Amino acid sequence: MLVAAAACPCPPLLVPEVAAGAAPELDAVRAACTDALGVLAAARPDLLVVVGPDAGTSDYPAGTPGSFRRFGVDLDVRLGDGGDGDGVAGRELPYGLAVGAWLLGRTGWAGAPVEGRGVGESLAPDACLEEGRLLAGRADRVALLVMGDGSACRTLKAPGYLDERAAPFDAEIARVLGTADAAALRALDAGLARELKVSGRAPWQVLAGASEGAAGLSGALLHEDAPYGVGYMVATWS
Length: 238
Known about the structure:
With 238 residues, this protein is of the alpha/beta class.
């Protein structure tokens, strides 16, 4: 059963070595992510699953390596402790899960075993909900670290250029995540999310599925901003 969740953005720029001279611009986001992970630890889960965008839908066991070399930085990470240290031979974490692994390493996570689940960005809402239900049943007390960004169309210089629908979309996501409104997450428009280049849509809908049957979840919005024209939200459910 789901006992807690944290939603965090997953831009590689969250890693100071990747951001380089611009690193201080995301200090507030990093601080909020640290606070969110504290909420997960306080829930004393038996299992933590990091969920994030991927090319397809795949499991990543404890010990799976990740790297930020594709972003010009000689920095490696691993997903949690344990495992054989190699994960699945020949596979690396997708970027979102790599950022999640970096956050866990940065905060010294030791609260529970860690696994990863990548979900395809085109995965249909019903399939995302089923993914969440399955994850919630993996242990008596499951926590999710849900990695994903909002729209990438908030400004003229944003990766997806300016789209007037982007700010209202992100405002609604901030409201939904901050109030643990699972019904609204289930109803997210996957087509609009795709047009706005939202990487968090599928992971958030996995969270919605995982929350089914979890009574008494309340939400808190810890941070919301769009420093590079991309929506970054940090929230907790507990």
